[in-house]
Amino acid sequence: MCRDHLRGLPVQVTPEKRGQAKQMAYGLLYGIGMHALAKSMEVTPDQAQQLSDSFRRRIPTLDKWLKGIVETCRRDRFITTIGGRRRYLTDIVSSDLRQRAAAERQAVNSAAQV
Q1: What CATH number corresponds to the domain at position 97?
Q2: Which of 59, 74, 91 finishes a domain?
Q3: What is the gyration radius of the CA atoms in the chain, in angstroms?
Q4: How many structural domains does the chain have?
C-alpha cells in the first residue's frame, strides 16, 4: 500500500515514506484535518491534500464506509463494535457542530477498533 500510495518502487520505500503512509491511513480513518495531517507528515497543507486525494482515489470504498458508519450511528444513536458491544453516541445528532463532529469520530473509531 505504501509503495502504491507514494508511487515508489519496492527499493524506494524508506521507513520515512512507510511512516507517512501509515499516518495518512490512520489519519484519514480517524478524521484528522489537513493541517494536522500536514504537520504530522512534515509537508505543506496543499501537499497533504494532494496525498489525501490520491490515497482516497486508490481506496474508493473508504469514504463510502466512513459515511455509512456515521449514517448508521446517526439513525440508531449507537454503533456496534467489532466485539458486539453497543456504544451509544447521542451527540451524533447534536446541533452543536463540535459535539456532533466528535461523536462522528468516536463512531468511526469504535467501528474500526477491536
Answers
A1: 1.10.150.20
A2: 59
A3: 16
A4: 2
Q: Summarize pLDDT for 24-62 with one digit per residue, the tens.
A: 888 888 888 899 999 988 899 999 999 999 888 988 898
CA distance 111 to 66: 9
Both 37 and 25 in one domain: the answer is yes
Containing domain of residue 100, as a range? 62-112
Are 107 and 76 in the same domain? yes
Q: Which pLDDT tens digit goes with each residue over 57-92?
A: 988 898 899 999 999 999 999 999 999 999 999 999
77: burial class by Cβ within 10 Å (0-12, 13-18, 19+)? Answer: middle
Q: What is the pTM of this model?
A: 0.74
Distance from C-alpha of 104 to C-alpha of 110, rounded to nearest angstrom? 10
86, β-bridge pairs: 80
CA distances from 51 to 33, 36, 55, 67, 83 (A): 13, 14, 6, 20, 33
